[in-house]
Amino acid sequence: DLQICQHRAPTCCTKKMEESYQAAVRRERTQSIQALNFELKYMIVGHITAFQEAFESLLRFAENHTSSLFESAYRPMAKEAAEPVKELFTDISLYILGAETTVESAVLRFFDSLFPLVYSRLINPGITDLSEDYTECLRLTRQDINPFGRYSKNMVTELSKSLWASRMLSQALSLGIEVINTTEHAALTKECSRALVKMQYCPHCQGLTLIRPCVGYCLNVMRGCLASVSELDAQWREYISTLEYLTNEMASSHDLEMALLGIRNSINEAILHAQLNGPQLSATVDKVCGQPKQQEGTLSSDNIVPVKEATETQTLVMAHASLNNKRREFINYMKRSRTFHASIAERLCDGDLVMRDSSTCWNGEDVV
What we know:
Number of strands: 0
Order of helices and strands: HHHHHHHHHHHHHH
């Protein structure tokens, strides 16, 4: 009653053993593919982790760099500006990790929160009554009177270019893991598991436990079984090219590091612009939001302070080099995996599975 290992000679197999063999080949095939995938998956997962760690470190550095602007140049609003700065960098982080948000909404939300502070602490430092309604009116007015000139729009443009490549790379790496996981759990067809039993276990039914499959026979069986996996070859090659393109984009004109560190200067230019146009802004705000309560006595609104640039170049250079090295190492490794899906049958037939350097092997019917 054998279905797979039928042979003219006497056999020591039963139908139940054939069923056990089918379960065994399915398990073994999954394990073999997992072993092949392990290094590739380990490399991608490792790079995702390294990329995120380097990126988080860079974000913290850029956030501190930006906060120090308020500490050194705009002390009257430094404490209150801490929360909007933190929110801006949180939004940027979420954007890169693939959240449904945009760079423009993050930047404009930040400037909406910044304007009431600039207006009440720098342009009109005598204001005491900054009620919720008045603050909200200032936030909404910001969109119409554009107190920060072209600087808010420039910041959106610069960051959008730089962060886009990082966001795409982050999503592409996650996609790579998905593809690899899918190939690991590709179901074997009934014909395939029967062919694998015939190749690996039918010799055992004749007592030939040391005979292994012939190389050509193994390749034919494996290519048939893994046809759906090898069909991914063209898309995988294209995927590697896309990764290469994205890493080059990040390292060239759309430099993530420089864009994040440039946030500080953009905000400073924007605040200076608002201060220089203080009288016109005050006139417009008074018409729209009314006049707030003023403190007794006169306080000069002319407190434009030149910014002292922090000497953090060395730390930046190290963070920049670290991220660039990680990208370079990763893409060089991934380029070597271009043929991964096309050569999977050859790799499975390499090693212990087939007979090497021997005059006898199993061809599916007999020892040859």
